[in-house]
Amino acid sequence: xxxxxxxxKKECCPATRLIGKKYEKAPxxxxxxxxxxxxxxxxxxxxxxxxDAYIGAVHIVDGMPEYWxxxxxxxxxxxxxxxxxxxxxxxxxxxxxxxxxxxxxxxYTMDTHNMCLAELKARHFKRKEDxxxxxRYNCPRFTTPDERGxxxxxxxxxxxx
Length: 161
Description:
The protein has three helices and nine strands. By secondary structure, the protein is α+β, with helices and mostly antiparallel strands.
C-alpha cells in the first residue's frame, strides 16, 4: 500500500449543515464538474472548521450507506435551489492526513479506511459506529502536488468522546 498516514488530529466540529447531493450508490463527482455545482456552493459562507474544501461523506441510514458530495456550512445556512442537505449534530472526528500520488485510487479503498481505524484504535479513540466519515479535499493540500507528485487527503472518522 502506497498511502501513508502522515499526521492524525482530533477535530471538534460544531453543528453542521452538509449541502450538496445525496447518492444511494457511488457518488458521481463528474456531474459536479460538468454542472459547476461547487461554484454555486462556493458563493455561500462556509463553515470555518472545513474552510472551502469539498466534501465526500458517508454514513449509515437504515443499515445502508448514504453517500454525499457537497460542502460543510453553518447549521442555519439557506439551501440553494436543486440542492439537498442534511443537518449533522456537533461531532468529534479523528482526521487522518493521507499522503499519496495525486491520482491514487488507494485513497478510496477499504484497506485505507481500515488502516485509519487501526490508527484510531492504537491511539485509544473509539469510532462512533454508523456515523459520519468524510473525505475533505482541501486546497492546496489536495490540489497542489509536492515535488514527489503527492497530495494530502484529509479523511475524518467520527468518534465517541
